[in-house]
Design goal:
Blueprint (H helix, E strand, L loop, with lengths): L1 E7 L9 H13 L3 E9 L13 E6 L2 H13 L4 H5 L3 H10 L5 E5 L14 E5 L4 H11 L6 H18 L5 H7 L2 H10 L4 E7 L4 E6 L2 H14 L12
Parallel strand pairs: 1-2, 1-4, 2-3, 4-5
Antiparallel strand pairs: 6-7
Length: about 240
């Protein structure tokens, strides 16, 4: 039986959103053959009753003043706003004091990955169900009195794009060897006006290009249909 720690910046209750339902059911499923502990942070302890499938529940309290401070602090460090807003130094210290007790640590949402101990040798999982645009919309509503949405939105967009450009899909090289056409499509898309980067999704079911504007994406779609008439192509909004 393995010991698993689930790290989340919000509790799985109440079950009114997709991300909460997902981590709730993942934890419940894993608890059938493993011991699952859950640590979360928030301004209030949402529930005190024991969750029957959670072995140990750890709550770390924070407040809006700390969240404002860390939002600005992480902004200066060049990290996304949501990482700073949901950061807790107390939670980080707690995780660093117990991480060696676990065979696996699951980080719920991108912002929770900030708590990953640098020297951890076990299995790590990032459960990434973030609806990033909605996360930012909620954050801006909290700080609407500052009238800083356009500035922060632009700055954070650039940070997110820069971060994604540095990342790689480890399956892309293998898939491209099997299907050389993929490289041709990726190379064609990434040189079009306004394209930040292009790569495969997942195991290669589709090729994507991330563009600066909707009009640039639409123009590229027309060019793709001319060059690759047998392939399906659509413009969609990132979330």
């Amino acid at each position: 039986m393995k010991k698993i720690l689930v790290v989340t910046t919000k509790p799985p209750f109440p079950l009114f959103s997709g991300d909460r339902l997902r981590i709730y059911n993942i934890s419940k499923h894993l608890s059938k053959k493993n011991k699952v502990d859950l640590i979360y942070t928030g301004s209030k302890e949402k529930f005190k009753k024991k969750i029957n499938f959670i072995n140990k529940l750890i709550f770390i309290r924070t407040n809006i003043i700390k969240r404002i401070f860390y939002t600005l602090f992480f902004l200066l460090k060049g990290k996304p706003l949501q990482v700073g807003f949901f950061f807790s130094q107390e939670m980080k210290k707690k995780i660093y004091s117990i991480y060696e007790n676990y065979d696996c640590i699951i980080f719920h949402l991108v912002r929770a990955s900030e708590f990953l101990p640098k020297n951890y040798k076990g299995t790590t999982v990032l459960e990434m169900t973030d609806l990033i645009s909605e996360n930012y919309l909620q954050l801006f509503k909290k700080f609407s009195f500052l009238k800083t949405r356009p500035v922060f939105s632009s700055m954070d967009k650039k940070k997110l794009i820069d971060f994604l450009k540095k990342e790689n899909n480890d399956l892309e090289e293998t898939v491209s060897r099997l299907y050389p056409k993929i490289i041709e499509i990726i190379n064609f898309v990434k040189v079009q006006n306004g394209c930040f980067f292009s790569r495969i999704t997942g195991s290669g079911s589709a090729c994507i290009g991330i563009f600066s504007t909707n009009n640039e994406a639409i123009s590229t779609k027309k060019l793709v249909k001319l060059k690759f008439p047998k392939y399906w192509c659509v413009v969609s909004k990132t979330i």
